[in-house]
Write the structure tokens for this entry.
Amino acid sequence: MKILVFGDVHGNLVSLEKLFTVEKGNFDQFICHGDIVNYGPWTNECLEFLYQKRDSGIFLQGNHEEYYINGVYPGSNEVAKSFFNFCYPGFDKAWLPFISGFTKDTSAGAFTVMHTFGEKYIFQDTEIKESEFKDNTVVGHSHQQYHRIVGSKNLYNTGSLGQNRALLDVANYLILDTQTNKVECKSFEFDIQKVISEMEARKYPEICLNYYKSKKTVNE
């Protein structure tokens, strides 16, 4: 079985729709490892899009789903706080039962898929021990795509579908073959200006707009 694994969509409907166009017919099932909500302008629309495809998908809970379920951002980061304070009031609470039903992890062949472990942002160079995760593992959360070998285990990060840390207009995700346990790191470019223009139209706070506008893109 070929599984499409992605997450950290963050309200980016442009990238989400393109993913399912680019990979149409190339997977049997998908796993979304969380953080569909917040930041980008289309949280409700992204939830609706994926809800319509729920019969072929598995949904895992990210930290931002947890914030939306609890109705509070518990951190101190001013940018993240500003995004939550602006985006959460526009969240359709009718989606709460859907996101509350997301699980924490799932199995896919020889891999465990989860949003992250130890509540950590795990980057390419983050110091971690093999004992911190029990299986070959796929995570997200840090918005950085990579493959690492830690001891005898493989650790993959899907990167972010909607908010790449390095190049904002590049979407990252994986294809995992459960028969061969081969993992393919994949990406595509999308029009980030559509996202920023919609944010401007919805009158996002300046601190939020500047966060997006300060990021690098492929052609810079």
